[in-house]
Amino acid sequence: MTSVKTNAKKQSYVWLDELSTKEAAVAANAGTVVIFPVGSVEEHGDHLPLCTDSIQPEYVAVEVAKRTGCLVAPPFRHGVCNAGRNFPGTMSIEFETLRMVARDVLAELVRNGFNRIIVLSGHAGSSHMVALRLAAQEVVKQSSPVSARKTRIMVLSDFDFAFEVKDLGFPETDGHAGAVETSRVMAIRPDLVKGKGKAGVMNVPRFEIVPDPEKYFEGGVNGDPTLASDAKGKAINAYVVEQVAKLVEELKCN
Amino acid sequence: MTSVKTNAKKQSYVWLDELSTKEAAVAANAGTVVIFPVGSVEEHGDHLPLCTDSIQPEYVAVEVAKRTGCLVAPPFRHGVCNAGRNFPGTMSIEFETLRMVARDVLAELVRNGFNRIIVLSGHAGSSHMVALRLAAQEVVKQSSPVSARKTRIMVLSDFDFAFEVKDLGFPETDGHAGAVETSRVMAIRPDLVKGKGKAGVMNVPRFEIVPDPEKYFEGGVNGDPTLASDAKGKAINAYVVEQVAKLVEELKCN
Amino acid sequence: MTSVKTNAKKQSYVWLDELSTKEAAVAANAGTVVIFPVGSVEEHGDHLPLCTDSIQPEYVAVEVAKRTGCLVAPPFRHGVCNAGRNFPGTMSIEFETLRMVARDVLAELVRNGFNRIIVLSGHAGSSHMVALRLAAQEVVKQSSPVSARKTRIMVLSDFDFAFEVKDLGFPETDGHAGAVETSRVMAIRPDLVKGKGKAGVMNVPRFEIVPDPEKYFEGGVNGDPTLASDAKGKAINAYVVEQVAKLVEELKCN
Amino acid sequence: MTSVKTNAKKQSYVWLDELSTKEAAVAANAGTVVIFPVGSVEEHGDHLPLCTDSIQPEYVAVEVAKRTGCLVAPPFRHGVCNAGRNFPGTMSIEFETLRMVARDVLAELVRNGFNRIIVLSGHAGSSHMVALRLAAQEVVKQSSPVSARKTRIMVLSDFDFAFEVKDLGFPETDGHAGAVETSRVMAIRPDLVKGKGKAGVMNVPRFEIVPDPEKYFEGGVNGDPTLASDAKGKAINAYVVEQVAKLVEELKCN
Amino acid sequence: MTSVKTNAKKQSYVWLDELSTKEAAVAANAGTVVIFPVGSVEEHGDHLPLCTDSIQPEYVAVEVAKRTGCLVAPPFRHGVCNAGRNFPGTMSIEFETLRMVARDVLAELVRNGFNRIIVLSGHAGSSHMVALRLAAQEVVKQSSPVSARKTRIMVLSDFDFAFEVKDLGFPETDGHAGAVETSRVMAIRPDLVKGKGKAGVMNVPRFEIVPDPEKYFEGGVNGDPTLASDAKGKAINAYVVEQVAKLVEELKCN
Amino acid sequence: MTSVKTNAKKQSYVWLDELSTKEAAVAANAGTVVIFPVGSVEEHGDHLPLCTDSIQPEYVAVEVAKRTGCLVAPPFRHGVCNAGRNFPGTMSIEFETLRMVARDVLAELVRNGFNRIIVLSGHAGSSHMVALRLAAQEVVKQSSPVSARKTRIMVLSDFDFAFEVKDLGFPETDGHAGAVETSRVMAIRPDLVKGKGKAGVMNVPRFEIVPDPEKYFEGGVNGDPTLASDAKGKAINAYVVEQVAKLVEELKCN
């Protein structure tokens, strides 16, 4: 097996589970980085689909894979939702369930030799992200002594990068289902954008744990989706892809 | 809201999470049946991809949705694997993890008013199926007293139907990655079939719980994939779609 | 300590917990195989006792022990029941409870040096058997690296053998509390057979997870108990004993 | 159904799981008290069998059932052991496992209408007893609002009564595998008494949680078994039976 | 009982568990708000004690209680630590442990009628805060239907307010064991401040989950403690007390 | 670092979490014993505060620390209550919660090198003590193979010593909130003693697990608090301090 052939194989697939068992062994031996996209089924206003948080990181992961030769694990399209959890259509899984799924997926990737991994979440709620981080922490801790090559896992939301793009004319407070998300979905799946949307604001209490956050979140939008455009979405997506690609390169290095 | 408009809306989407929050409310109110596809990331010989168990039920679910107006929930592409669990590329999650994911997904569907559900698994291992059934049992039990309309959940593997198709010239013992599965994948995703495959047999001990089942399962194929054909796959798939569509119609009735 | 004396000791007891601590140490050192019988407390028609699934494997285990010199661990007479779970008298434990009991019993046997074990269940429901298999899998996996002598565990239902006996004039569909079970109990504990029973059929839906399976299982009998006889029961039991004894001999070998 | 016929039925069986489903319904409707015997598999010196803690409460339960018409549930012959846990032959299950078994058994008895129960344990370690009490507490708490007739559960060790018998010439400090236990086993199963035993004392530290309690418990006997006699055992057993029978009568009353 | 007497009683104690059972009943009936302080045992540079995160919220809680008549529950001085978890002296408990402690404490307060609660944490790590919020969410959800008076729980870190004080001449990046924390401890427990401390910066990777965060956090200080002063600490503490007191008043209202 | 300097440092603090990270490292290296006080929030009659079980072991721990140079870990002031659990003000946590807190605290102490520990509980209920002992057992078992110096943990209630003091004129049956406890609190925190109290007796059934133990425990006092005196409390406390100090010295030795 030469590294040239290996590279050739790696480039022909983007999705890890489209490989055969032997192709997976080759990819793992070649040190291929894997991106694990995590999304949610969550209300995103009247204009965006429930899968808004899923299609953004999946788009980014596929583009990064095309560019860097990394692989994309089968996405997990469920998350722990908070403010939007009582809107119709939102499916919020238990904290512990997300943690166990992420732990099992990461542990099995590492067991297979894929020990350079990026967990890329389109949903960025704090409980959701903590579940992913605790899972990664457990796997990193357990795999430290056993692997010859150090296990390295990164956990991030693609919002961490998306909101770094400035000069788009969006207000600072833009958030859930706002101008950034609407622009990105317009660029990724325009067929799923159902009208222009309506500006709104999330007034969920700062400290109180309320059983009915939707009362403080009329319309389920935090920001002004009418400022969105396909072009802005493409610019944001390009930036996010570029940044995640850099992380992949960093994980390849040592 | 008239039922005509509702039907129109329902027919425009196949995937549940492509709906907006309001569209989801409409679909739930209309009593729309939901199919939840479950797969695995598992060795399927040298000729089939790791996602073999995922793409079969997803194909069936989408075809059934087109025909019946039901919706398809985001698939879960991980399973509890047994005989193939130590082959490269197989990612086997914990029994309890699968049970919790299925329970949360079903409970959230029911909470949203989608209380007629088919869990359609492409993987058919006994642990895997029991995890799904226990999850369904818990949700059925808990929702009985609260819902106005009775919650009804079916759990099946599409193998339950696929192996009912006779007169294909396949041996009785055909199984994992054999002629039936190979034919079906040839019909669904021919680009993922990597050669003709090689006949094999699974000799895992009948009763002993061995730590190394792969030693008794050389090649990871149980059956003769060389007997497969695209045409046979289409025939099998058509039969499975027809049978699952009947189940959807049954769930619609009362 | 000579092996002759060891054999002599082993033959004097059938039940593991009738040994003293020192006798247990001797038996473990001699590599004695242990059978762990598992039953249920479950409806078996009007003619058979709730302990029907318990007394069959216990009878087999004792007979095999007399013949092979293996030992029988204290039975666990509870199971995970499904179709019969709402009939009066059925006591169905949680899946997780059965799994933990089986895991603890197996782990403690192995810790004591009894690392060749047969889990012999009289109840054969799929959830029940999966709980036992997962427990065995966990113990086999964990004990692999530590024991000098390889841990080997088999998990089976005595139905796996009972229904292999042919030429008894029983219909193919015979099952729960039917002719086979009735015959076997007639041969083991005739005093517990309360009349001839009544033929019935289990019509529990193939795929739907119903909260009230008893509605589809009038009489709680699947088969025709009136075809049963003591002589047929003896023949079946003899066959099952012979087959399980072969498994014990196989476990003794290496 | 008249109460006379009910009584007749009840008296014909001692073991609950020897009833058929219909007989169980009758017994439950008649308010029959159930005793659930719990034992252990534990070292008891060189002269007593591992099942010493199991056969004592089972003997008592059967005798009480014969006298009072109560029923005996299938025994659970495993316990949480402490000082003797590292001796050969001892099988100690996890605290949580015992708690779950007891909870499931009690909850299923109550669900079946048997809501007057005595948990009678032959093992009396504090962890073991607490597991049983927590299980009973959970079931009592949950069943309070639902049952028409109040659920009442008692949890005790038969040692609570056995050591109340005085004037036997046994020292105050008699305990594990000592004169009382040896006498009782001599009276119940003389064939399992392997010699006279040897006096010993348990010097396990008062407060320290040691990993090797057997080092402080040479011989595994706390007391002087040579003082035991069959006649003394009969006297103790008779007293325990009488006391437990009184508890059954108390539970019958209201 | 008049409300005047009740008020009088309330004012005489600050700590909830210094009340007798009857006094607790009176306080609960009067609708008294309770603050539950949570801290950590965590490295805070060479100049601050491990209890830094505990004494800050406890100080605030006591001062608020004196001013508003609320009560302070016994503090829990352990937390889920991340960046500092491998420094000597840090004791980091499991996420699930913190969640269960907080859930039990909150549920027991509510069961006692204290259903207006502020969880005030001195540690502000995201895992730690999520554990507290999930606990509160569970209790709020479960108590909603049962209490006559609505259960209201707030969860916050006192950092949420401490870093709102401006014009102190501290850099924006001040954080763990920096100028704010050092000033506050100087004002609360000057005897526990061990020297001036040394400026440092936390360079833990933005996304990677590293097993050895201490390598990126030399000195365990994020900020410049040499800028701290007792006077600044007093000003910060006064502000935090004032803000938390406002929250108590808000909880009293309806 | 000389042992003289180490001793000097150790003597300046009593509470472990008042040390800085470096001071903690020094104390751990010096083999310093740690006392972990555990209490409860529980009804103690009308005359004693809810924190009665907390302040006794904390007082003892601090006095022992002053005398022996050991350290005191942050107390945990919650327990598993039984007979008093439904009185106003009692906060009883789940068995599993106490077990997890104790396990985490002990495991983290051991990880930090503090592997000689006394868990000193002011509450002495059997469930409560078993939770603490199981936690200690788990930590002792897991740390055995890894630590160079043997981990030693003791678990006790200070009642184990308090009731050894004789000649105080207290009846043998003195118990919860009785003369011993009242005397001790009078000596420790006289400001929290609210009157002389009233004699009472705990008549909770010997074996039955009742949902309403308070019905058998009018007044919540078991004994006669009117016999208490400050002087007797001082005598008892002095004896308990002396005994616990001996245990510390024993743990220091090897």
List keywords for this structure.
homohexamer; 254 residues; alpha/beta; Rossmann fold; 8 helices; 4 strands; 7% strand; globular; disordered N terminus
Percent strand of chain A equals 5-15%
Overall mean confidence score, pLDDT of chain A: 93
CATH superfamily of chain A: Creatininase
Low-confidence stretches of chain A: 1-11
Number of strands of chain A: 4
What is Rg of chain A? 19 Å
Largest sheet of chain A: 4 strands, parallel
How many helices of chain A in DSSP terms? 8
Can you tell me about this structure?
Six copies of one chain form a homohexamer. Chain A is an alpha/beta fold and 254 residues long. Chain A has eight helices and four strands, in the order ααβαβαβαβααα. The longest helix of chain A is centred in the C-terminal third of the chain and has 24 residues, at 230-253. Chain A is globular, with a radius of gyration of 19 Å. The first copy, chain A, starts with a helix and ends with a helix. Chains A and B meet through helix 2 and helix 4 of A and helix 2 and helix 4 of B.
Q: How is the secondary structure organized here?
A:
The structure is a homohexamer of 254-residue chains.
Chain A: H1 3-12, H2 21-29, E1 34-38, H3 52-68, E2 71-72, H4 95-111, E3 116-121, H5 126-143, E4 152-157, H6 159-162, H7 179-188, H8 230-253
Parallel strand pairs in A: 1-2, 1-3, 3-4
Helix pairs in contact in A: 3-7, 3-8, 4-5, 7-8
Short description:
The structure is a homohexamer of 254-residue chains. Chain A contains 8 helices and 4 strands; from the N terminus they run ααβαβαβαβααα.
